[in-house]
Amino acid sequence: MDIIVNKYDALVVGFGAAGLKTALQLKKNGVKNVTIVTENRMAGTSRNTGSDKQTYYKLSLSGDDPDSVRSMAEDLFSGGCVDGDQALLEAALSVRGFFALVEAGVPFPCNEFSEYMGYKTDHDRGRRATSAGPYTSRYMTEQLEKAVEAEGITVLDRYQVVRVLTEKDSVTGLLCLVTCAGVQAAAEAQPDPVSPEHADFHYEILLSNHIVMATGGPAGMYRDSVYPASQHGSSGLIFETGAKGKNLTEWQFGLASKSPRWNVSGTYMQVLPRFVSTAQDGSDAREFLQEYFENAGTLLSMVFLKGYQWPFDVSKVANGSSVIDLLVYRETILRGRRVFLDYRTNPCGGEILYEKLSPEAHEYLKNAGAMFGTPIDRLEKMNAPAISFYLDHHVDLRTEMLEVAVCAQHNNGGIATDANWETDVRGLYVVGEACGSHGVTRPGGSALNAGQVGAIRAAEKIGRDVAAQVKASGKEDVGEKAAGTGAGGIDTKDDTAIGLCGESIHRAEDRINLVTRIHGLRSAKELLLEAAKRMSAAGGMIREEARIKTALAETEELLKNFEYIVRPESGTDVKYVYRLYDTLLSQRMYLTAMAAYMAGGGKSRGSALYTDPEGALASDKLPELYRMQLDQGAHSGEVQEVKMTGKDIEVTTRPVRTIPDAGLFFETEWAKFRERNGIS
C-alpha cells in the first residue's frame, strides 16, 4: 500500500464551531498553510444539535446589569475543579468571540438600540446568556464555514484520524484513513496519482508540528446519549499521545428525546407536559410522577423548574427538580419500561389549578399569557418553533407522545491544557468540548463560548511559533508538499526530506497493521454497541463502585486481546475497527478516573450520583441505589489528572490554578503588550 505524505504549517481536526474558528484565526495570525481535516464535514455536534433555546454565554452587554470580566471569571471558577487562568480568559475573550460571530452573520438578537440583551441561565448570577434560537451552534458553524471558504482554507473531507504521531514529547503529524470520495480527491491531487479504482480506502500521513484537535467530546462512549449519531470524538487518540485527561469524572446528563436526539429543556418543560410510563409494548400507560409527589401543585412546579434546572444535579434532588431525572431513570433502567412526554393532555387529571403552582411558575406562565389549554396549546403560544422542530423530524407533538430518557449531553472534563489550550505534548492543542476547561458545574452556554476562546488562544500561540520558525528558516512558510510513497509500508529512504522521524514511522505502521492483525469472531459494530451499553450502565448518571470496576476490567480485557476478539472488516468498514479502538481507550481512561475518585473518598457531585451505603436517601420512596452523600465542595479545589504511561494509567491530583491577579495599570500593561507583539 502506498502512503502519501504531506507537510503543513498547521492542521485543525474537526469541522465544528471550534475547529472552523481556529482555522480562521490561524489565517488571521499569519499562518499560511492551514488545512482542516474532517471525517465528515456535515457531521458533528455543532451542526446537528440544539435545544429549546440553545445558549451562548458571554459578558452582559445591555441595560444596567452590573458585570465585569472578574465577576464572570469568578462564576466560571466557582463551578469547582476549574483552573482560574482559563476561567479568566473565557470571561475576558467572551465579548471578542461573541462579536466575531455577530459580524460573521450569526443572528443573535439585540434591541433597537443595538443592546445585546440576555437572560439568566443555570449557574449564572446575572443575565449573560443569549441565543439565536434552537439552532444556535448550527448557525455558528454555517457562518464560520462560509468564512473559511472565503479565505480559501483547504478542507480534507472523509479523512478519519486513526493515530496522532509524536516524537518524544512533541507532535509530528497525523495518520489518516481516507475513504469514499476522499480517495478520489486525494488521488487526483498527487503529482503521481494513487489509483483508487479497486481500493475502498487508503492511508495518508499529514505532517505538522502544530495540530489542533477540535473533535468534540467522546460521544461514542455512551448508548444513552443526546449527542447526534454523527458525533464520535477522538479523545482516545489524544490520550494515546501521553496528553493528560482532566476532570474526566464530570459530565452533564439530562432529559432528552430518543428520536430525534434533542434536549427537552426550557419551554418543553415549562408548558407542563404529562410524564407517562409504559411497558415495552406500549401498554400499561400511567403517570408515574404521581407515585412520588404528594400533590399536583408540587409535581407541576417541579416539572416547570426542570426547564431551568435541565441538567441532572445531585444537589437538586432533595429540594429541586433533579428528582425527576431519578424517577425517569428508575422507570427506564431499573424497571425496564419506556417514558414519554405527552403534550396532548394536561397532567394530573386534566385541569391545571394555576394558583397551586409555585410563585415562580405562576408568574412566568401569567407573563407569557399561557395559563390556558393543553401543553401543546401553551407550547404553541410560548415557542412555536419548538413544535416545528419535531415536525421537521417526523414527530407531531399534537398527535403522538415523545419518548425520552436521561442521556449523556456534555463532557465538562476532557483533555488537560494550559492557558493557550496546549497540552503537555508540545504543539498539540485541544479546543472545544474535547478540552476539559469546565469543572463540576458550569453556566449553561459556556461551552460554546469556551470553544471560540480556546480557538483564539491556540491560534495566537501557533501564530507566534510559526512566525519564529519562518524567521529562523528564511522560508515563506513551514509547510510544503513532500509526497513520499512506498509499497507495503512507509518509505524511509528520504525520511529527512519528508520530515518523518523513526518514532512516528513506528507508530503509523503499528496502527496500519492493527487492521491486518485482527482475526477474531465479533464485528467492530457489534462491540461498539456493547461497549456503549456497558458505559451507560456503569459510568452514567448513577455510579456504583462494583459496576465501575467490572466495566473497567471488561474494557481492559478487550483492549488487551483486541486482535483476537475483533473480526476482520473489509472496505470502508475498517473505520469501525479504528472507532472501536479509540472508544475503548477513552472508556478505559474515564472508568479509571471514576474508580480513582471513589477510592479517594469522592462523593456525589454535579451530574453524578455515586451510590454510598452509608449515605442518605432524599426520600424513602426512592430505591437504595440512590443512597448517597454529597461531596459538598470537599474536592472542588483540586483537579484530577489521568495520564496513559505505556500500558499503565497514572492518576494524580493537583490544586486548581487560581484566577490570576492580572495587571491593570494601563501604561505598564501597554508596554508589555508592545513588547509581546513586536510593536515599537
How would you explain this protein's 3D organization?
- The chain is an alpha/beta fold and about 675 residues long.
- Strand 21 and strand 22 (about 650-655) form a beta hairpin.
- It has 21 helices and 22 strands.
- The model is unreliable at about 195-200 and about 480-495 (pLDDT under 50).
- The protein has a domain at about 250-410.
- The chain is about 35% helix and about 15% strand.
Beta-strand fraction estimate = 15-25%
How far is the N terminus from the C terminus? Answer: 54 Å
Instruction: Tell me the overall shape.
Output: globular
Specify the structural class: alpha/beta
What does the radius of gyration come to?
Answer: 25 Å
* Largest pleated sheet: 5 strands, parallel
Low-confidence stretches: 193-198, 480-497
Looking across the biggest beta sheet, what order are the strands in?
A: 6-3-2-10-18
- Report the average pLDDT across residues: 92
Count of alpha/pi helices: 21
Instruction: Assign a percent range to the helix content.
Output: 25-40%
Oligomer: single chain
Q: What's the total count of β strands?
A: 22
